[in-house]
Fold this sequence. Notes:
102 residues, mainly alpha, single chain, 4 helices, 40% helix
Amino acid sequence: MRDSISRALLWVLRLLLPAKGRHAAKSPATQCPPVPASPWSRPWTAPSAREVREIFHDEHTRHLPAPQRERSYAAAFARIGVDYDHPTMPLGSLVRRERVAA
C-alpha cells in the first residue's frame, strides 16, 4: 500500500514542480544544429603549387636513387613545415613483412 501511495505522490509532485538541474527538460527540438565553418573561411596553410613543383623538379635530386630522392623530398617538405609520408615510394618492394608467431 505504501508503495502505491508514494508513486502517486511522486507523480503529483512531478506535475506540480518542474525539474531542475541534470534531469531538467531539454531545450525544444526546433533549434537548428550549428552550421559547420566553411574550409574557405580560413587562410590557406598548405604549400603553394610553385613550392611543391620546385621540390619535385630539383636538379640535385633527379639522378639520385629512389630511397635517397624520397628522403630529400621529405627533408625539403620538413623545411617548409609540411609532413611528407613518402606517397610516391613503392614500399612493397622495400619492406618485407614476415609472419609473427602469436
